[in-house]
Design goal:
This protein is α/β, with parallel strands linked by helices. The protein folds into 3 domains: 228 residues, ABC transporter transmembrane region fold (Up-down Bundle); 162 residues, no CATH class; 243 residues, P-loop containing nucleotide triphosphate hydrolases (Rossmann fold, 3-Layer(aba) Sandwich), CATH 3.40.50. It has 29 helices and 15 strands. It starts with a helix and ends with a helix.
Length: 746
Amino acid sequence: MFRLFPYIRKYAGWVLLAIVLLFVQANADLALPDYLSRIVNIGLQQGGVESALPDALRTETYDHMLLFLTSAEQAQVQAAYTRIEPSAAGYADIAAKYSALNGQALYVLQTLDATQREALTPIVGRGLVTLSFLEQLQSDPEKMAAMGQVLGFDPSKLPPGMTLLDVLGKMPAEQRTGMITAIQEQFATLGESMINQMGIAVARAELEALGVNMTAVQSSYILRTGGMMLLITLLSVTATILVGLISARVAAGAARDLREAVFVRVSDFASAEIEKFSTASLITRATNDVNQMQMLTMIVIRMVFYAPVIGVGGLIRALHTAPSMGWIIGLMVVILISLILGIFSVTLPRFRKIQTLIDNLNRVVRENLSGMMVVRAFNRQSFEEQRFDRANLDLTNNTLFVNRAMVVLMPLMTLLMSSVSLLIIWVGAHQISQAQMQVGDMMAFMQYAMQIFFAFMFMSMMFIILPRASVSANRIADVLEVKPSIVEPENSVRFPEPFRGEVEFDHVSFRYPDADENVLCNITFTARPGQTTAFIGTTGSGKSTIVRLIPRFYDVVEGAIRIDGIDIRQVPQHELRAHIGYVPQRSNLFTGTIESNLRYGDEDATEEQLQRAAEIAQAKEFIEASPDGMATEISQGGTNVSGGQRQRLAIARALVTGASIYIFDDSFSALDYRTDAALRRALKKYVGNSTVFIVSQRVATIKSADQIIVLDEGEIVGKGTHQELMKTCDVYRDIALSQLSQEELA
């Protein structure tokens, strides 16, 4: 996988931008449950009152509250609240806010920082709760009597006209200190959460008593918090859209670059490298494998960077929201990981096998299509159908096994998610009933648990794609990392001017890569401009191999090939091949028109050059017979023209180059004798100054050549003209007599 990083490194900036946006998106998504919790807890349950620390207190409430605080706590409260008299400046504004003042003084909370508020809130809350509790006790004699054990006296024996708070106000400080200590011990048993909730309820009642419109306060808080949720959601949506665009751009761009890199590298391959990979495999690597990498890149950018942030962030926030239920998250993660690992341990080997099976299927299809006529000629359609069925079923069965295993994963995850939700509600409900948790906190915890759950689901999707993509990445890298055996010289030289085209083989030997024996041994000859050099010999004697060495489709193992005295290994490949017109054994035409195929030899060729090349190649007659002439469409591979027409068009394409060296590798085999003879006469007339190489099995095609080289088992066993070889070379004589009569050979 990492082997492909150099080819996608240029997208690092976009990826970093996507990571930043994903971090923004994740934090926005993590913030939403907290705001929902606030709406439920504060907006609905607490009526919009956020704290047990009221912004204002009536004088009576303030004085009575101080009775239940220690001297140190009283000092903190007195430092935080300021008494506002009716005669004070700004009292009118305060009275407008607190409509029930009726000209009375009140205490207003000063501006405090977060630390000061956090320290003061439990003190004021405890004092207000105690005050409220005692006020409620005065109307219940039985509870008043029970409270006497805490206060240290019998509240039922109060003097006429005096309240419990009046008595507490006149109580000595030492006695009141003991009472405060006893009250704080009672509060300690309630828990901080319950005390805070009770304090908020008292603070809300105090604000109502001051004339504050609590309905408006509640609505304002809900709308304000809901508005923040909408803004955060908008931010998350924007980040999601931008990440989607970036991931699509990067994935498509990286796939384009990989396809181009594979194509360019394969284009640079010598024949030795092409033979290492099958054509079907190279096509699969450039298409299906690259598509796998494109999908992986998109998912990596959109999920892999997002999932850890949302998972870790959700875990931290869940534990902060409800630490007592953290064990539920741990249990869920353990079960989830076990489930994912169990399924992937079964499916991973099958994922790795898919690409190989696709290669095999492509190979069977390609062989069947390219050899369709052979299949029909031998009535082997049923055999080929069975062969295709085997390859198709192997791929289908493997894919079905993987899909069936993965199908089980989603229902199990859904069941786990529902079970976790039910467990959270069940545990949370018990804690809410015991005032250890608020409803909003339980809802937020549930959402955080789901975010953690989906983070693992995102990662599991990666595990689905990663094995197959990893195989694809390695297959692509295998192609890209192949070093071509035909390399450019470090210190290149150029052919001398004017270019003549004299080709010299100097004791050349050659063996194919990984072969043990040479297929050509000690080949020495010279081909001069204006001459035709022909090669003939038994099948497998090395005729085509010799001419493939001239354009450096292979490099010699021993000896040297020189053109105009320059070793071709010292010349850049493009310059060498620019002087060569090559017609291979198999005449390949490209999709397009006849004209576009001929211009493949020279894009800037004139109409006159095209017509002359077609005339020399004996193709002009059937071109003009077509209604569209040069604009006649050629299908892929030239399947809509005959073998002879395809061969003549390939020869014309080579002639358009106007090269100094022409190689015809058994290029006349599909021509009848009359057309063959006419083509050779035209070649002699129009390209008589070029160096011409002809490989042929037909003696009639080559007997007029200036130099005939006879090969047998990779060695030259005869060299000379037709007449000379008939006298001196037994191999040539046997071939000639097997094809022509004595009169034709004369």
